[in-house]
Amino acid sequence: MAQLKYPKKVVIGDITVRDGFQHEEKFIPTDAKLWVAEKLIQAGVKHMEITNYGPPQLMPQFKDADELMKRLRSSKKVKGLIDDVVISNITIREKAAMRAIEARKEGVGPDRILFMVSTSESHHRTNSGISLAEYWKMCEDIIPKAHEAGLKVCGTVSTIWGCPIEGPTELKKAVEFTKRWLDIGADDIEHADHDGSAPPDKVYEYFSMVLDAFPNPDLHIAHFHMTRGWGLANVLAALQAGITHFEGTLGGIGGQPANFVDGVPVGGTGAYYYADPSITGLVSTEDMVVMMDEMGIDTGLDVDKLLEAGAMVERIVGRRLRSECVHTGRIPKGHTGRR
């Protein structure tokens, strides 16, 4: 009998506290961010993004970056557990990276930082403020300093399947960017469908190309958005290509830095920001994990604790989010007594 072929064990990272909350047009209290991070760790999440070390005037959602990291590192609720968790923070430019390095030296920093490039020059300049050539040079200079401080470095590749500014892009260019990241010392690569433009057939094609060129699946993280509703289809396509590392957010929240927070216009994403939170968003961590659980894939996560955390995130932001399983629950495994 013909069966789908896919890995039987995967690693699921959750990036709710950073990528999820960055799209909110109200400041999420530090206590709430800490609660979510603690619950995710208690559910067994071993990889998570917590904050962004970029300028608070552009992204005030992260004005509590230092406080949140200090409180998480000293949290009694995850004492012992957090030692096995890789905490990542975004550091798009040099000042942010140096901030992470100093925090690491003080014992309250992340374990891993992320730099971001887009294969589209105009998209990259919009996100980073400098050209691709300048950015590559910056990263070549900073990555050795980060490693010396004990930080791992993730190189993100974006606009793989298309650019909202320039239009279609070439998959082979993203493979070339992946090689460049690895050549200059990146420890792993996040392959990002940043705006939900990736169709499943092209996801399979791309990750097949990537794994042909760089066969170690631990080097690659798949990052999908739900802008057009294709997220879980793309997860399945990536699984079939052989990808074993994925990330999502509780409720599928997030997607772009808000350009309006607590009644004040801020830099945020800029002109192509989607103000309607029902449009943007990532793959729901809960739905992805429940689906994988039904497929017999070992995620290492406590599904029920994850669903509880997802339900609370809806209360934190004050609206229904895009997770179906938070409301439907898991598929019953036996008699429930319901009629």
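That was protein one. Protein two is written in the same sequence-then-structure order:
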Amino acid sequence: MADNNNVIVNSWNEWDPLKHVVVGRADFSCIAASEPALDAKVPEDSEMRGMYGPRPLATVEAANAQLDNYVAILEKRGIKVSRPTAIQWNRSVATPDWSVESMFGCMPPRDVLLTVGREIVEATMSYRCRWFEYLAYRPLLNEWFNEDKGFRWEAAPKPRLTDADYRPDYLSDKIGIEQRLKWMQERYYVTTEEEPLFDAADVCRMGKDLFVQHGFTTNLKAMDWLQRHYPDHRVHAVNFPGDPYPIHIDATFVPVRPGLIINNPNRKLNPEQKKLFTDNDWEIVEAAQPAHKTPPPLCYSSVWLSQNFLVLDPKTVCVEASELAQQEQLSNFGFEVIPVPFRDAYAFGGGLHCATADVYREGKCEDYFSKQ
């Protein structure tokens, strides 16, 4: 048993100096089978509609090679890296309410683990195929719980994920972009308010304030739960009407240091919500254009993983190696940019930020938005 003063978990924002992080694995990853939440995300013209099962071994090996290289880069910078324990995701799972043919994977720990200060919360998850994903991280959480006496380990209320959690309007495969964008303006998403639903990757931590994307994977009831769970924080809903598939905030709205946010030019922050940032002297700039016109094969994500970068500290950032325009933009803002090859890993759950979950960043809880 470690010393009672051994602090393992501590992280209040997305930019303080990173000292310990979880990086995912691609082992045994699957393309998830059809279910309400997933079907709403997959574009109508995607080749992946109706596809499911284990991902090709060659792609798993290529993704793992890039993940291992990413780990080596971080460790060379003096950052401790922990890894999840992959399980056999290619098996059917069920609860009394539903069953699915397979699970997903554990490449993107960012989706599951929400670190706020000295606490890590296991998110509810909004997809049935991801209901058991927390199991990959339980060995780490249990180890840290034993060693860090101040670490608070929580699990958000596990949802039932019955059909009542999803709007039947989204079951059609002929919705079209125009209708989707209309629904985005109306804040009419596939998830209902039946029970709290959230993925950790919808939460952007900025000290005392938590900005949470309202969309396909997180509902307002979850924000109510988060506000009650963190009574000393301020929880804000944010919306990006230009995004027809609003899932996770990391390729849309990315703070890189106090006072500076990179915003996807196609998914701009709702104007009424922008005032809080301008009132507190934050600059919101449009992200550089992606280097690629299409995502890699068998990838659900958009080309805007170009801005899914990992901030190591307020002067250093990891950016995907081929995204030269994004690297140049951040360099012009005074950052040391570390290029990291990562496109082979994209299909397994996202970019450089998605593939990580904070464990420890130096620093404390600050109030960056005192003018509310």
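The two ends are 44 Å apart (CA to CA). Keep this in mind for the problem set.
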